[in-house]
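for the writeup, i need someone to sanity check this before i put it in the appendix. the sequnce is what the collaborator sent (i think, or maybe the updated version? ugh). structure was predicted straight from it, no edits. if anything looks off just tell me and ill rerun, i have time this weekend
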Amino acid sequence: MSFPQKPEKLLERIVLASSNPGDLVLDPFCGYGTTAAVCSKNDRRWITIDLGPQQIEISKRRLEKINTIGLNPFKVLTDANLVEDVTKYNYLIHGECLDVMKILIAKGIRVDLIYADPPFNTGQRFDSGFVDKFPSIKDYMAWLRPRSEAMRDILKDTGSLYHHCDYRTNAHVRLMLDEVLP
C-alpha cells in the first residue's frame, strides 16, 4: 500500500483559515509534502520533517516543480542544527520529528500553525517499508505524547494545532492532548 496523500484543497482550507501570509507552518510528519506545497502556493513559510528517505525525495521533487519566482527557496537537510534564517528559507528535514523539534525549540524557532498527521497505528505495511503498527495503544500513546509536547513547545501562544487521527485512536489522542495543551 502506498501512503495516502491529503487533498491539497483540504490543507489549503486549514492553512488559509489558520494562518496569515508570511506565517511559519510546521508539518512534523511530512509524508509527500502536501502541507509544504500548499504553503508554497499561499505565501506561507514552512518546515516539514519526515523520517522516511522515500518521502523526503518525493516531497523534494514535488516542491521543485512548484517553486516559482517570488517564493522562498527551500533546503533539504539531514541535520536540523543547520537550520538558518526561517524568514529566508523553507526547510524539508530528514529526521526523527521529536529530535528535530527539540533542536528548533533550542534555536528559539516558534511556529504559527502545526498540521500534524502522524502514523495512525493502523497495522498497515506501506510500499516504503514503513509498518504503521505499535504493540499496543499504550505503546502508541507513549510514542505520540512526547511529540505532542514538543509541538506544544514550538507553537506560538497565538498559534493553531491541527492533529489528524482516525477512529482507532481518536479518543486516546483527544484525552492526551487535553492533558498536554494549555
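The CA atoms of residues 3 and 173 lie 21 Å apart. The helical segments are 8-18, 34-41, 53-66, 97-106, 137-154, 170-180.
thx in advance!!
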